[in-house]
Amino acid sequence: MKSRNKILLFFIFVCLGTSLCKGQQQTKPDLYIVQACVYKGDTIPYVLLRNTFVFPELKFKNDKERIEYYRLIRNVKRTLPFARVINNTIIETYEFMETLPDKKSKEKHLKRVEKGLKDQYTSELKKLTYAQGKLLIKLVDRDCNQSSYELIKAFMGRFRAGFYQTFASLFGASLKKEYDPTGDDKLTERVIVLVENGQI
Predict the structure, then answer these.
(1) Is 73 in contact with 195 (CB distance < 8 Å)?
(2) pTM here?
(3) The pLDDT value given to residue 149
(4) pLDDT score for 24
(5) Less crowded by CB within 10 Å, the N or C end of the chain?
(6) Which residue has the higher pLDDT, 139 or 2?
(7) Greater confidence, 187 or 32?
(8) Is the dihedral of CA 182, 187, 193, 196 positive or negative?
């Protein structure tokens, strides 16, 4: 009787074990198609890695400095795309205006571009904070190699540039502010490089 129970118990364990066990599933490995190059008769994969920028570790004197740094990161991420749009728009507008035959058609095109930009970006730009607005002025200078004042003067004339400069100065800003990557804006340049490279 005991041997029969042992045999029965053995078969129960075997049946349970086989029902619970699953065979190893063959999974396909992740495949990446990369370029290859031949080196000394041997074909080896060739992968181009992006640059990684390494800066000295930042040392903050207090929590206020740390908070300011993280605020700068947020502000750069918020305003950098606008500076890029401005730069691309200026290049495209200038190149297209060079193909137009006379001053009248150039002014007409410029008004269309201005209206289109206002319709598309005014609501977004109104959401920028004061600090982000001042940063955007500097980033425009960085991306376009000209201050916002000079760009407005070139496209819209001295009068409108002066008007916008006066308006900005009422809020403590200046459209003539230039970007200084090795001086006042050294930390901002560091953040921009890291943001552009996807490191922060």
Answers:
(1) yes
(2) 0.72
(3) 87
(4) 54
(5) N
(6) 139
(7) 187
(8) negative
> Are 187 and 69 within 8 A, CB to CB?
yes
Would you say residue 140 lies in a domain?
yes
Q: What's the structural domain count of the chain?
A: 1
Residue 40 lies in a domain: no
pLDDT band of 3, cuts 50, 70, 90: low
**Chain position carrying tokens 């230039």:** 178
Amino acid in the structure at residue 162: G
Instruction: Write out the residue range of the structural domain in which residue 83 sits.
Output: 77-196
142: in domain:
yes
The span from the CA of 83 to the CA of 141, in Å, is 9
Please tell me the distance from the alpha carbon of residue 29 to that of residue 17, in angstroms, as a whole number: 29
Give the residue from 173, 170, 113, 178 showing the smallest Cα distance to 140: 178
**pLDDT value at residue 188:** 94
Q: What burial letters (b/e) apply to 139-175, b meaning 16+ CB within 10 Å? A: bbbbbbeebbbbbbbebbeeeebeebbeebeeeebeb
Determine the Cα angle at 176 with ends 170 and 178, to 5°.
125
- Reading the block at residue 21, the tokens are 């066990």
End-to-end CA distance of the chain: 73
Q: Are 48 and 164 in contact (CB under 8 A)?
A: no
CB count, 10 Å around CB of 83?
22
52 is a domain residue? no
Close Cβ partners of 50 (under 8 Å, ≥ 6 residues apart): 197, 198
